[in-house]
Amino acid sequence: MNAVADKYADQEIGSIFLYTHEAHPGENYLHLTSMEQKFEHARALRDVYGVTRPILLDALDGACHRAYGSMPNMSWIFNRAGMPVYKSDWTDSLSVDYAIRYLLEVGERRSDGQRMAPFNVERMDYRVQDREDFYKGLERNGPKAVREFDEAF
Amino acid sequence: MDSDLIQRYNYDEFVPEKFGPWMRFLESPAVGQKGPDFPLWDLEENETSLSAIWSQNAYTIVEFGSFT
Q: Which among B8, B35, B43, B23 has a CA at the least distance from the CA of A17?
């Protein structure tokens, strides 16, 4: 997702990471009990995972996250007026890239004089499941996170 | 703030009865209608808002997530 952000940064496309709650808390990254701890975890996300986009924190009660469906790793695209034009219950950089390219093309078509009317579409997208990488993340969180994930599924 | 809500939202173990209730994507705002605004904080602990973010560009990508 950093690459998508960089790719479109000069085309009036902003990109942020919105920090929510710990989906798989472990011994190394416990569940959140304070904003101070949430800031620490968000800085660790930046430093360990190399997130280069601006990281913004939700409130401790997850007011924003809950209002938008509270999925653990979803992505949304908003227009300047605050209207969602894309929402996905999981994050896939290719899916987001396609959506941005489409939206930019709509702008170009409008500039060319075409009359454009919005419509709704639903589509099933597909993402790569990298279980090895996912488990590395769980192990980083702590043995408890690995054990609980294995027991849950 | 509601301390019970904070505790339930920030669940301490990944078990279905604790994470399942938060999977509410089907109840999320529709595309094409203005989304709700909320306060947010940057890593320097300055308060801003989702609307302040989305108003800065033609489009804004928002990825939700956490370290874990």
A: B43
Check B65 against A137: CB less than 8 A apart.
Answer: no
Kindly give the parts of chain B with pLDDT less than 50: none
List chain A residues with pLDDT less than 70: none
ipTM attached to this prediction: 0.97
pLDDT of res. A126: 96
- The answer to the question of residue B62 being in a domain is no
- B54 neighbourhood in chain A, CB within 8 Å: 14, 78-82
- Residue pointed to by tokens 């904003």: A35
pLDDT at A39: 98
CATH number of residue A127's parent domain: 3.40.30
* B-contacting residues in A 19-48 (Cβ below 8 Å): 19-26, 29-33, 35, 39, 41-46, 48
B66 within domain boundaries: no
Residue B48 lies in a domain: yes
Assigned domain for B42 exists: yes
Q: What residue in B sits closest to A60 (Cα-Cα)?
A: B6
Main-chain dihedrals φ then ψ at residue A132, nearest 5 degrees = -65, -45
DSSP 3-state assignment of B8?
Answer: helix
Interface contact flag, B15 A19, Cβ < 8 Å: no
Among candidates A145, A28, A7, A53, which has minimal Cα distance to A19?
A53
Question: Best mutation site among B3, B10, B11, B56 for testing chain A: the one with the most A CBs within 10 Å?
Answer: B10
